[in-house]
Amino acid sequence: MSSTVAKALSLLDYFSEAEPEIGLSELARRSGVDKATVHRMLGVMCDYGLLEKRGDARLYRLGAGVLRLARVRETAFPVTSIFQQVLEMLSAELGETAHASLISGHALATIGVSESNRGSRVSLLAGEILPMHSTASGLVVMAFSKPELVDRLLGEPLAAKTSRTITDPSILRARLQEVALTGYAESDQTNEDDVYGIAMPVFDSDGAVTGAIAVATPAHRMTNDLRQQVIAALFREAEKLNYSLGGRPPAAFRTAASRYRPD
Amino acid sequence: MSSTVAKALSLLDYFSEAEPEIGLSELARRSGVDKATVHRMLGVMCDYGLLEKRGDARLYRLGAGVLRLARVRETAFPVTSIFQQVLEMLSAELGETAHASLISGHALATIGVSESNRGSRVSLLAGEILPMHSTASGLVVMAFSKPELVDRLLGEPLAAKTSRTITDPSILRARLQEVALTGYAESDQTNEDDVYGIAMPVFDSDGAVTGAIAVATPAHRMTNDLRQQVIAALFREAEKLNYSLGGRPPAAFRTAASRYRPD
DNA sequence: TCCCGTTGGTTCATTATTATCACCAGTGGT
DNA sequence: ACCACTGGTGATAATAATGAACCAACGGGA
Q1: How many domains does chain A have?
Q2: Domain encompassing residue B251
Q3: Residue A64 and residue A45: Cα distance in Å, rounded?
Q4: B83 and B62 in a common domain
Q5: pLDDT confidence band for A259 (50 / 70 / 90)
């Protein structure tokens, strides 16, 4: 963790939809890195287009380089566009917010959101980073990941995002067992108060999890009827998604899916 | 240039549409960096989601993190979507390939392409990096950039992309003077054989250049009639673009635009 | 007006990180 | 069996990163 490139790259994560432009001192304060060091790193990242300085203001923001890199990846492996279609289908059918995320390092990166048009709905920030241990998407991803990844993730301390967040690794492991059996994960306000999430895994052609699609509702609105409806829709769309992306769900997930009966 | 983060970030630029997945040894060979070093850097960049390993194959590719970062930037400052509309307008009207690029470090990053539907047309790779000195877009960007940026760019050796590429800094400076007067730049096979490009600058709210839109045709097809048509269309679309993006063209460009008469 | 707390940015001696080499194990082709 | 690759790993030498102190500039507030 004390690698310099790691420190430099970690600076990128402070830029968000809510705060797309940050100054030098502010960034140094938050990251805990010295101002001079941050300055040098920002300079290099500007040179490579990952960041850029707004002309007059002395603020930094994400640069054109990230747009370019995303284009390169998306052209070679078009996933966001395919995910987006599925999300819009889901949110239209269920009237709730749907979102998709991919494994990115040791967390999840939100790469697509489709909000419902209801007055009361769950909102997500575009490009938000979701923790593995406190979200439905994270649980379902861990449940189908290789044990060594889970070990690494549960080795670090688990932040209590709400009062209901599971922070005990052994309890969490038990949850993962259940999730692996059912094929989907639920989160009742474990990441954010008043948000209930249900997530389904998405796989690549090697049978490895790559991410998840999920539906989030205000917690009070989640009845058992809606739950069943959401789960059925997610199973259906996840299968379509795996087909479109060439994903091969592992046996564990296929049997879970076939075992599923609305109760 | 000998900074480690610079070396690490430079590795990203080896991933392209044409070659989206690269192995460790290959990357070490091209970058000229030691295999062990590359390995450590790739590991860190994987940790931060900029890269990822394809499950079975031991190849690296751009990760979900770049998708996320691009989303964050695009949500905060939606430019690619606006550019894309303009590009489609241009390619439809002119029947030639149109593309847009933004300043990214000391080069240009292609962030949008709209190819014509003709049989013979110019093709660009998505997310391609365009040199400043050999492309019409680069010339027009430099022509309206601050002198210190131009000095930095012309201080480094200029690669001869074709036999017609201008590699002499002083000759190039003279060209930039002309370009600043006319408001647009032309490139007759200076970046790629048989490609003729015409580019127009795009500005931000501070009057600084941020990028360019351009039309590229097969060189033999560029008649004076077509030239005039392209230039007129680019002036028109550039103005619309500056309006949509809140860009304020500097006086130098506005007078150039008003001075323009088809000859 | 002065003062004070900011800001972005720079410098340089110290030190901790990083590069390099050699090595290992696995794989695919001949 | 061999060879030429591949991805990956460790220990030491050398380099590059660090962080405190220091500027200049800006914006209030009194």
Answers
A1: 2
A2: 77-259
A3: 11
A4: no
A5: confident
Count of residues in chain A:
263
Query: For residue B256, what are the CA distances in angstroms to B144, B174, B183, B261?
Result: 12, 17, 5, 10
Same domain, A64 and A82: no
Q: Nearest-CA neighbor of A212 among A180, A234, A243?
A: A234
Q: Which residues pair with B60 in a beta bridge?
A: B22, B53
Closest to A69 (Cα-Cα) out of B44, B52, B31? B52
> Virtual CA dihedral for A201, A204, A207, A210, nearest 10 degrees?
-40
Question: What CA–CA distance (Å, rounded) separates B46 from A212?
Answer: 19
CATH code for position B240: 3.30.450.40
Nucleotides of D strand lying within 7 Å of any protein CB atom: 5-11, 15-21
Mean pLDDT, residues B108-134: 93
Whole-angstrom Cα distance, residue B158 to residue B132?
9
Of A65, A77, A126, Cβ closest to residue B104: A65
Taking the CA of residue B263 and the nearest CA in chain A, the distance in Å comes to 36
Q: Summarize the confidence of residues B4-11 as an average pLDDT.
A: 97
Residue type, B242: N
As a whole number of angstroms, the distance between CA A226 and CA A194 comes to 16
CA distance linking residue A253 with residue A255, whole number of Å: 5
Q: What is the mean pLDDT of residues B71-76?
A: 97
B133 DSSP assignment: S
Domain holding A56: CATH number? 1.10.10.10
Whether the predicted pLDDT of B156 surpasses 70: yes
For the record, the structure tokens of B212 come out as 């360019």
Sheet strand arrangement including B185-188: B129-130, B107-114, B97-104, B209-218, B195-203, B185-188
The integer distance in angstroms from the CA atom of A13 to the C1' atom of C26 is 37
Look up residue B62 and give its amino acid.
Answer: L
